[in-house]
Amino acid sequence: MLDSSLRRRSFFAAGGALAGSIALAPAARAAHPATTLEQLLAGNRRFVAGRGRHPHQTPARIREVAAGQHPFAVILGCADSRVAPEILFDQGVGDLFDNRVAGNIVDDLLLGSIEYAVEEFAPPLIVVLGHERCGAVSATLNAIRTGGEAPGHIAAIVDALRPVVAPFVDDPDGVEKAVVANIRAQVSALVTRSEIVAHSAAHVVGARYDLETGLVTVVH
Q1: Crossing angle, helix 154-165 and helix 135-146, to 10 degrees?
Q2: Kind and range of the H or E element at 44?
Q3: How many Å separate Cα 45 from the centre of its chain?
Q4: Of all helices (H) and strands (E), which one includes residue 206?
Q5: Taking the complete model, does pTM exceed 0.90, yes or no?
Q6: How many Cβ atoms from other residues are within 10 Å of residue 79's Cβ?
Q7: HSE-CB for 79 with a 13 A CA cutoff
Q8: Residue 173, helix vs strand vs coil
Q9: How confident is the model at residue 192 (pLDDT cuts 50, 70, 90)?
Q10: Contact, 180 vs 130, CB < 8 A?
Q11: Cα(first)–Cα(last) distance of the chain, in Å?
Q12: Which of 118, 123, 122 is nearest to 91 (CA)?
């Protein structure tokens, strides 16, 4: 029987060819988590200052990565329209492997997507990016307070967030505290629920985006 690492290598060799995900030269990505995080935060500072370089957004870049991608960081972010990672980190096409869902929740589908990126591209960094006044967090707190039920499949988001945010339901600053708690909870979930992530070289960090200022800060 093939061992698990060999099966993974075989799967991703075939998958990469199917998806057109042929790795670019290793020099195209930062090798150290701290360096990669600083690269993202420096881009965010440019964005906040209105001095964005808008890198890797030319027709030449599009043609370059058409043959294969090698994003240097994985982002798990909220689906909120105001929190687009390439824009707020001042990056471009092929730089970030984005995974976005309301509440930046680690579920099986998102976890599979992130594991794919970790296996295929060996990024040094995974960022869980939450944000100020998250609507999913607010809706969950409201559902807990009122005893109401969310309609349709929105209930799945509320159910996923409920145990994380419930301790803050009576706190006057509950939304903000729950946002930070959720970021930490999803960071923990990535490592505890995924052997692939836990055993990889990727460093998982949490971060919070401020809607008012555009600034990203690391959540410890």
Answers
A1: 80
A2: helix 33-49
A3: 19
A4: strand 203-209
A5: no
A6: 14
A7: 10
A8: coil
A9: very high
A10: yes
A11: 42
A12: 123
